[in-house]
Amino acid sequence: MDERDDSTYGAGFFRDWLTAAAAAVDREADRLTELDSAIGDADHGVNMKRGFAAVTATLEKEPPATPGALLVTAGRQLISTVGGASGPLYGTLLRRTGKALGEDEQVSRPALAEALAAGVAAVAQLGGAQPGDKTMLDALVPAAEALATSFATAREAAEAGALATVPLLARKGRASYLGERSIGHQDPGATSSALLIAALAETAERVEVAG
Fold first, then answer.
1. Antiparallel, parallel or unpaired: β 8-9 and 107-108
2. Angle at 99 between CA 189 and CA 135, to 5 degrees
3. Is the Cβ–Cβ distance between 130 and 124 less than 8 Å?
């Protein structure tokens, strides 16, 4: 079931999204680490699991009142708890998205799409990467664009983007040190990014069913 064009989403929706994302990361942590062991430091799953667990704990204790504030808080938590490059990158994604949402108590899907695009652009600037470099951007860029159409389309675009990293030569990040040996492996950052977008789509689906 697809969302209505006039639907808006409050802080509770965003907290549910990040809780769902944390559950997905926990469930897929071993797979993320396995992917990272092939072309990275073999710690992506562990780091992401720790970071998103800390996010959910923080949001349960002191839930921010607006979607923007909630994402900013989550981003700060990821930066402080996730090791390696993932913390700053994911933290920047959520913080910049939250700042773009401003102080509105309710946000529409199109507004979230615009804000997410701003967050993705900030990630690109921080990491110096672009689509095709075999990074999380290969999932996030198409997802942000597709979110303008629907949550489900964003999920499909992110998952397709992650799968499309398999034949790519890594040009950024730890995997780029491997050169042609990075070809044939799915990027762990793109994979965890697809999990984040899938959790968003699943949360939206639950809202529609409940409504």
1. antiparallel
2. 15
3. yes
3-state secondary structure of 36: helix
Among residues 120, 121, 127, which one has the least CA distance to residue 88?
Answer: 127
Q: Which tokens hold the place of 155?
A: 């999920």
Place of tokens 């994604």: 93
Question: How far apart are the C-alpha atoms of 134 and 179, rounded to whole Å?
Answer: 12
Domains and CATH numbers, the chain: 8-210 (1.25.40.340)
Q: List the structure tokens of 150.
A: 């629907």
pLDDT tens-digit map of 85-107 = 889 999 999 999 999 999 999 99
Q: Give the separation between CA 154 and CA 200, rounded to whole angstroms.
A: 9
Report the chain's mean pLDDT, rounded to a whole number. Answer: 93
Nearest to 74 by CA among 87, 195, 23, 207: 87
Phi/psi-derived region of residue 197, left when phi > 0, alpha when psi is between -120 and 50, beta in every other case: alpha
Helix runs in the chain, H state only: 11-39, 44-61, 67-81, 86-101, 109-127, 137-146, 151-163, 188-210
Query: Measured between alpha carbons, how far is 59 from 78 in angstroms, rounded to an integer?
Result: 12
Q: What is the pLDDT of residue 177?
A: 73
> In the chain, which residues have pLDDT < 70?
1-5, 211
Main-chain phi, psi angles of 162, to 5 degrees: -65, -45
